[in-house]
Amino acid sequence: MAGQLVARRADPLSGRLSVRLTPAGGADRIEGRVTSANGATLLKARVRAAAENNQANRALEELIAKAYGVAKGKVRIVRGHTGRVKVLEIEGADHAEIAAFLARWGEA
């Protein structure tokens, strides 16, 4: 599965994607795709906010919502609240849309 773009799906009305986050990274931006040690493709992002009081997580949700073109309330972290690798759910997105979103970003 190395190098494949994988979008996770919890239900037909939402899509999931994995993101490796760098908090206090000096800028809010998506840097591209990376491959994890287990071969999964992750989106790599950084945010200015520190990893305190959930600030970095909220900034990541806003960054992904803006990049994906949905309201902030449509994106939420569903796993990895305290780790660097997060799983985000985008309400209303399907598997194919998430895969296309991931494909837009080059290798980091």
Per the CATH scheme, the topology name is Conserved Hypothetical Protein Mth637, Chain: A
Indicate the CATH class.
Answer: Alpha Beta
What share of the residues does DSSP label as strand, in percent?
35-45%
Average pLDDT reading: 89
Radius of gyration: 13 Å
The amount of helix comes to 10-25%
Number of domains: 1
Uncertain regions spanning at least 5 consecutive residues = none
Instruction: Classify the secondary structure makeup into a structural class.
Output: alpha+beta
Named at the architecture level, the CATH assignment is 2-Layer Sandwich
What do we call the CATH homologous superfamily?
Answer: YggU-like
Query: How many strands appear in the DSSP assignment?
Result: 6
Biggest sheet descriptor: 6 strands, mixed
Annotation field: number of helices: 2
Order of helices and strands: EEEEHEEH
Shape: globular
Spatial gap, N to C terminus: 19 Å
Multimerization state: single chain
Word description of this protein:
With 108 residues, this protein is α+β, with helices and mostly antiparallel strands. The model has no long low-confidence stretch (mean pLDDT 89). The chain has one domain (8-103): YggU-like (Conserved Hypothetical Protein Mth637, Chain: A, 2-Layer Sandwich), CATH 3.30.1200. Strands 1, 2, 3, 4, 5 and 6 form a six-stranded mixed sheet that branches. The chain has two helices and six strands, in the order ββββαββα. β5 (75-79) and β6 form a beta hairpin.
